[in-house]
Amino acid sequence: MFGVNGAELEVGVNSDGYLVDLTPPVMTEMADTRDGSRYQSDNIALNLRWNFEDWESGIKLYKVQILESYHGIKQTFWSVSGSYNETKPLNPNDGKMQVSLDGLTMKDGHVYSLHVSALNQAHLTTAHETNGVTVDTTPPSTPKVCVYCVAK
Fold this sequence. Notes:
The chain has 152 residues and is mostly beta strands. The protein is built from no helices and twelve strands. Strands 4, 6, 7, 8, 10, 11 and 12 form a seven-stranded mixed sheet that branches. The chain is rod-shaped, with a radius of gyration of 25 Å.
C-alpha cells in the first residue's frame, strides 16, 4: 500500500495482516475429578481439568465457576466473589488446564460441577458444564453378620 501527498511524494507501508476467525472454541475435555468418577469422599478439594481448542486464533481466556446443586437448586459455589474466575492458558494453541482447588467446604449429598466459558482471540465464546461430582463422606452402614443363624 502506498500513500501519496499533494506534492506527489510516496510512502510505502506494509500491513501485518489480520486473521479471520468465524468459529468459537471447541471443548475436547472436561472433568471434575482425576478419574472421572461421579462420587468422591473428599469434601475439601476438587481436581479439575478441561481443554478447549481453537485452530484459527487460539484460546485467549477462560472464565471458570464451580456450581453447587442440591434438591434442584443450583447456585455459584466458587469463585469467592461469586462471579467467574478468569484464567489464561500458558499457550493459546494448547488450552489444556489442570487445576486442584483446595480448602473448600463441600457438603454431603451436594453436586459440584465445573462451568467453563472459553474465549478465543476473535472474542467468540463457547460454554460447557460437567455433570458434576457428588460428595459423600459417610461410610456404608455395617451389615449384621450371623454365622449360625436360625431362620424364623
